[in-house]
Amino acid sequence: VVAPFIHSPARIPDFSKVRRVLFVCYGNINRSPFAEEYARARFAESHMPIEVRSAGTAARPGTPATLQAQGAIAQYGTTLAGHRAQRISSELVSWADTIIYMDNTNRAALLEAFPDTGDKMYSLASVAGMREISDPDGLSQSMYTDVFTHIARAINALIERA
Question: Whole-model pTM above 0.85?
Answer without folding.
Answer: yes
